[in-house]
Write a structure and sequence with these properties.
Blueprint lengths: L3 E3 L5 E3 L2 H5 L34 E9 L5 E9 L5 E8 L3 H4 L8 H5 L6 H6 L3 E6 L28 H15 L3 E10 L1 H9 L7 E7 L12 E2 L2 E2 L4 H8 L15 H8 L2 H8 L5 H8 L5 H4 L3 H6 L7 E6 L8 H9 L8 E6 L12 E2 L2 E2 L4 H18 L11 E5 L4 E5 L10 E11 L3 E5 L15 E6 L34 H4 L5 E4 L7 E5 L2 E8 L5 E9 L14 E10 L18 E6 L3 E5 L4 E7 L28 E6 L3 E9 L2
Parallel strand pairs: 5-6, 5-7, 7-8, 8-11, 11-12, 12-15
Antiparallel strand pairs: 1-2, 3-4, 4-6, 9-10, 13-14, 15-16, 17-18, 17-29, 19-28, 20-27, 21-26, 22-25, 22-28, 22-29, 23-24, 23-27
């Protein structure tokens, strides 16, 4: 029987949990008396990990910024380090996790994984520092996607990633006794965007920057749009990255095939509503700015850095098959190299996917490169480059201004500039891949002529583009966006998928050259010049430049007839006249569309053929164009999506940056 006894103190002593449960928590006179004798806790008040056996010491600190906000920072110092340089990465992806990929007594093993060139860091004796950006994980403050520069209309606060980097470096060189006072900053993707921000009014101790696959312009050709077409597979990223500080909210799958997930929802705006993405402030900005207005151009890093003097040695790293940020590194190189008076700007291009420079670079999907190209980059290019600027006694490093892997021939080229084709004795001149009747493609070195004379527009091919049956961007079923290959997520390598799936469709036009009898080498950006008409009032145009392998490849039989994309992109027709202002397309009228495609450094080998494919959807990679002009496609209604007949005239061509002998 439960009993309630008066204690000598006048307080109630509860002898049964059932009675206590019936009392309000605020019941006066109830003392906090244990219900049972306590056992001593087996958890120490503070655990101090022994350092014996570790080849590093790890510290976690909160570094104050100029506005009082403190940023969580993990510092890993090699044991017995002295006068060691610092290699910094700032990230929204969890500093604690990025510095503990593996539990190991060895620094190199612990750092194996995303955004750590672990062999370079450990073998080079670098102090490794990784910091959460403001508003993410262990850091204080508010999170803003790709936080713009302060003092602008986009950021009226006094802080940005430039100031945060300055304050962080200032603290590091004053508070890490083992350092020589020299700091380098390196990172991939978003973490590659942050070194670019560090170049704006850089701290004097910042001696080198390595932006790898950086986010640069989210509208022109990086994460969010490509020439106006929205990259809707990134909807899951917007949800997970923005709506919580520690990425607790997770995107869920509703169909085995991602194609079905996006089709069933209708518009991408409706799918965002269904999944709660519209609660994200960044998503609201995307929807409010579908065109290339000041919101996008004002934070494009190539434009910002074009106005800055080049004071910090910078190595831009580009992946030729980057599924996420294929635009950024080349755009920054073109923007800042003309102002490089002291030869401080370097460019590296490898045959990798997004971030592939720190992984296994011997292959990508079915492609084999005859060597570990990523290991070569890290050991022969990256490490000597970092050592040159960060170590007190490093020997001079002979790093070429441009180091570019040439796909097809599978050779590294050391070049003086980009694009240049070779060190000397060659020149790049435009060549024309002109579409012709019967699916033929004619390669000529003739000067490209404008498609303007009415007589030239008589010949065309046409297809029906149906938004109810958009062209898949890869063979179905399509796994959701992601990097976990154990779950079948092969997103990082989709750009090297075989394109035969598309070439067999009636809503894709394919044009092919005869079998090549001599190598055809290109270095630079192919440019699509379409003369096309649509029966609708809006249209998307996708152009793909493809290397068609011989019907049989003895050394690798599965590559027989393979159709490898060398360069490809999409253009939203409503921006034909102006990227800033969307306009309806005049129906059934032949109009020119011109847009640059991603950089290539490729040799089409003898025995191969060159193909160009043209289509009007690339789904669900990009949102469907309703083909009826609406002010904002994010709000397109089911009735807006209509079939359209697309005509592509034979005056259309792809301009190739053809490498030939110097004239």
């Amino acid at each position: 029987m439960n009993k309630i006894l008066w204690a000598l103190t006048g307080a109630l002593v509860v002898s049964a949990p059932a009675v206590l449960a019936q009392l309000p928590a605020s019941t006066p006179g109830v003392a906090a008396v244990p219900l049972y004798p306590a056992l001593p806790s087996e958890t120490p008040d503070e655990f101090k990990a022994p350092l014996d056996g570790l080849d590093y010491v790890k510290r976690s600190v909160m570094i104050p910024m100029r506005d009082g906000v403190k940023l969580n920072t993990v510092i890993i110092v090699p044991r017995k380090a002295s006068h060691a340089p610092i290699l910094l990465t700032r990230t929204p992806y969890n500093a604690a996790e990025l510095t503990s990929h593996n539990e190991s007594s060895q620094m190199e093993s612990m750092l194996q994984g995303y955004d750590n060139a672990a062999d370079v860091i450990a073998e080079g004796g670098y102090i490794r520092v990784v910091q959460d950006v403001r508003g993410k994980y262990g850091s204080e403050g508010d999170y803003v996607m790709n936080r713009p520069l302060s003092g602008s209309a986009l950021n009226p606060t006094p802080v940005d990633h430039s100031t945060d980097t300055w304050d962080t470096i200032d603290w590091l060189v004053k508070n890490i006794p083992e350092t020589n006072g020299k700091v380098g900053i390196i990172g991939i993707s978003y973490d590659g965007f942050l070194p670019l921000m560090a170049l704006v009014h850089p701290h004097p101790a910042l001696k080198v920057a390595v932006p790898m696959n950086p986010m640069v312009d989210g509208w022109r050709g990086d994460d969010w749009f490509h020439n106006g077409a929205f990259r809707q597979v990134n909807l899951s990223y917007v949800l997970e990255q923005v709506v919580t500080r520690r990425n607790e909210a997770k995107w869920y799958t509703s169909h085995f095939d991602d194609y079905d997930t996006f089709m069933r929802a209708g518009s991408v705006g409706e799918l965002a509503r269904q999944r709660g993405v519209e609660q994200s402030g960044f998503w609201c900005k995307i929807v409010a700015h579908p065109s290339y207005d000041a919101f996008w151009s004002g934070q494009a890093m190539d434009k910002i850095l074009a106005r800055e003097p080049v004071t910090v040695p910078t190595m831009l790293v580009h992946s030729l098959w980057d599924a996420e940020d294929i635009y950024g590194a080349i755009a920054v190189y073109k923007a800042i190299k003309p102002h490089d008076q002291d030869n401080k700007v370097f460019l590296v291009m490898g045959p990798w996917n997004h971030g592939g420079g720190i992984g296994d670079g011997s292959h990508l999907g079915p492609l084999r490169f005859n060597s570990d190209t990523a290991l070569h980059f890290r050991q022969e290019i990256l490490r000597p480059f970092l050592d040159r600027y960060l170590k007190d006694d490093a020997p001079p490093a002979q790093i070429a201004p441009v180091t570019a892997f040439e796909t097809g021939s599978n050779k590294w080229r050391s070049l003086n500039s980009w694009p240049s084709g070779c060190v000397s004795g060659c020149a790049i001149a435009p060549a024309t891949l002109r579409l012709a009747a019967g699916g033929k493609l004619r390669l000529t070195s003739e000067a490209s002529r404008p498609a303007s004379a009415p007589a030239q527009r008589a010949a065309f091919d046409e297809y029906v583009s149906d938004p109810a049956k958009p062209v898949p961007y890869r063979a179905r079923p399509i796994a959701p966006y992601g990097y976990d290959e154990a779950k079948g997520q092969t997103w990082p390598r989709w750009l090297v998928d075989d394109q035969r799936e598309a070439s067999g469709r009636t809503d894709v036009l394919s044009y092919t050259t005869d079998v090549l009898t001599a190598p055809v080498k290109i270095s630079g950006e192919p440019v699509a010049h379409l003369l096309a008409a649509t029966s609708g009032s809006d249209a998307d145009w996708v152009v793909k430049l493809i290397d068609v392998y011989p019907d049989q490849v003895a050394a690798q039989p599965e590559m027989g007839g393979y159709q490898l994309m060398v360069s490809a992109d999409i253009f939203r027709g409503r921006y034909r006249e102006s990227l800033e202002t969307a306009k309806p397309i005049a129906a059934n009228t032949a109009l020119p569309y011109t847009f640059a495609m991603p950089t290539a450094n490729h040799v089409f080998l003898p025995g191969h053929r060159i193909m160009v494919q043209v289509q009007s959807s690339w789904f669900p990679l990009y949102d469907r164009n309703p083909q009826t002009f609406v002010p904002n496609i994010f709000y397109a209604q089911p009735g807006d999506y209509k079939k359209a007949t697309q005509r592509v005239y034979h005056d259309s061509y792809v301009e190739l940056p053809l490498v030939g002998a110097a004239r």
